[in-house]
Amino acid sequence: MSQDQIVRAMTNDGAFRCMAVRGTETINRIFAAQAGDPETHRALGGLVLGALLYRETMAPDLRVQCIIRGAGRTGSIVADSHPSGMTRGLYQRGKDGPFTLQGEGAILQMTRNLPRGNQHQGLIDASNATIDRALMSYFEQSEQITTMIGVGLPISDNQQAAVATAYLVQLLPEVKDARDRLAVLTERLAHDFADMDAIARQTDGDPKAIIEEIFYGMDFTFLSESPVFFGCTCSEERIQASLLSLHRSELMSLIDEGEPVEMSCDYCGAEYRVEMPQLRSLLMKKGDA
């Protein structure tokens, strides 16, 4: 099986940069941890792939988080991407049926950490959009960068991704007099990449093959590649820290129940069990507060 990875390239004239990602195994690990219908899985997978491209474009050495809230009360989807390539996703079920962007009130929120510890956040209206269109609108509106994005994510009958891939092409802001070339490339992508699910199957999501097709007839150079993988930041220590944040009376109430506390991670499904001695130790750490 091909390795999940993201590949970067640039045209030799410096006008365009392109990134393509294959994330099939990563996406399927996320799907396995997040129950949902096929369309919700498509949205979840699309946002996760988008988060990878967003990080590589805007903050390759820092963590990013993308959240898209569905129309009405149809829930939310969260995607985290870390500099190591570790990636995870979360589907938070809503009150009104399966997740959808079709309708009013859908919002895309893109957040990236900055070197000094603060954050940059952008919000756009994603009502009646698709995930790739919402991501393109974000780059146009919040970053002022002309961006084209495509997502290929055919879902199998078992609700797993047959292939998961995506690309991003940007006209670099400092380049002048490239509008004619942009118009030609945009038309090519609209025509030749209209069916991204088919492209995904034909290439098995191979990032280099996708970039070669996008930059067909143009001189370009592959710049770098890096791995992408599913992972989570949950741990026994984080679970205990969350319990330690409770008020002393709440901890005492848990101890009075006389049963170990069982918790699970919403992202990866890992289960944790905090035994009574650990609970008493946490209470002692709270002191008389």
Overall CATH architecture of the largest domain: 3-Layer(bab) Sandwich
Number of spatially distinct domains: 2
What top-tier CATH class of the largest domain fits best?
Alpha Beta
Name the CATH superfamily classification of the largest domain. Answer: Hsp33 domain
- What Rg, in angstroms, do the CA atoms define? 21 Å
Roughly what percent helix?
A: 25-40%
Runs with pLDDT <50, length 5+? none
Task: Give a quick precis of the structure.
By secondary structure, this protein is an alpha+beta fold. Helices cover 36% and strands 27% of the residues.
Walk me through what this model shows:
It is a single chain. With 289 residues, the chain is an alpha+beta fold. It has 2 domains: 5-230, Hsp33 domain, CATH 3.55.30; 236-286, HSP33 redox switch-like (CBS domain Like). It is built from 9 helices and 13 strands. It has helices at residues 24-33, 38-58, 131-143, 179-192, 196-203, 207-214, 236-244, 248-257, 276-286; strands at residues 5-11, 16-22, 64-69, 76-81, 86-92, 107-113, 119-125, 147-152, 165-171, 220-227, 229-230, 261-264, 271-274. The strands form 3 sheets. It has a 6-stranded mixed beta sheet, with helices on one face. A 5-stranded antiparallel beta sheet has the order 8-9-2-1-10, with helices on both faces. Strands 12-13 form a two-stranded antiparallel sheet. A hairpin with a 5-residue loop joins strand 6 and strand 7 (119-125). The protein is elongated and about 70 Å long. It starts with a strand and ends with a helix. The mean pLDDT is 91.
